[in-house]
Amino acid sequence: MSAPSSPWWDRDSYSDRRPFLLARGRILSALREWFRKRGFLEVETPALQTSPGNEVHLHAFETELTTPGGRGAPLYLHTSPEFACKKLLAAGESRIFSLSHVYRNRERGPLHHPEFTMLEWYRTNEPYETLMADSTAILVEAAKAAGSLQMEWKDRATDPYATPERISVADAFTQLAGVDLLATLDGDTGDRDKLAAAARGAGIQIADDDTWSDVFSRVLVERIEPRLGHGRPTLLDLYPLPEAAWAQRAQDARFAQRFELYACGVELANGFAEITDAAEQRRRFEEAMAERQRRYGEQYPIDGDLLAALAAMPPASGIAMGFDRLVMLLTGATRIEQVLWAPVAGDDR
Fold this sequence. Notes:
Low-confidence stretches: none
Shape: globular
Mean pLDDT: 93
Strand order of the largest sheet: 1-5-6-15-14-13-12-9
Distance between the termini: 17 Å
Oligomer: single chain
CATH architecture of the largest domain: 2-Layer Sandwich
Helix content: 25-40%
Strand content: 15-25%
Radius of gyration: 20 Å
CATH superfamily of the largest domain: Bira Bifunctional Protein, Domain 2
Number of domains: 2
Number of strands: 15
CATH topology of the largest domain: BirA Bifunctional Protein, domain 2
Number of helices: 9
């Protein structure tokens, strides 16, 4: 039986982690200054929300509010500051950013932690391509603050100063997985059997009860993501509409204006041209929660106040970046706990 590992506050253990934490502080300060110089306002949003979000596979922590009169009401720790940030855009703010602790259940591993820091920012009346420029500029700013010449994860390396490649999801499926994604799309939906057949033809195992989205994720995770962001960052652009619950449609209506930023095969950021059509957003939320009920036997409430705010929100683009992952890749850390000042108790099994 192996000896138990030392607690995070053990002096020797902490001494090993301290260089990562000092770099974290420098990166944090540099990014706050980067946003300030560009006219962004830092906002603080409440962690407790009436809805934690409405994505199928995100699991929230639930608690209960007790009123002074003794009445109870369910609340959730937010999985993102997104809902509150969008309400601030509806209230009149135009450039905002948030560095928030967010909470996701059932997530723990080298790149995942139940409580982590999310950097999220929004621009009104600007296209989502502006966020691509923002996110790659942030890599440079963070690398300078960390004193890093490259980003590292496992046996992969990325030059944070290099001009990123930009590739569509459809092209990535063709070039990296040998799967014709376009042939499996039918309007707003995907043909599950066609995609499953193509994935099996590429040597990917598919379960009988996998949906189109499940098969899409299998191909993405097994064949595409590990090959993104090698040597230079990658912007994976134009996701199929079924995989972009928050994003506006692209010119090709089968796709949405959504992109993700990768370095060393690791997803760092997820950006959108945001939906402002409340009816369309409600429809997508309801579809997601129906699928969540089918899979997990539960649903999260839909935030009606958010839907009301969308009607008042100007056109906007928004993006979320995993701040801890950014620090990891720039410092050479191998586990997310190494870049957290005080990790959550528990294990990663």
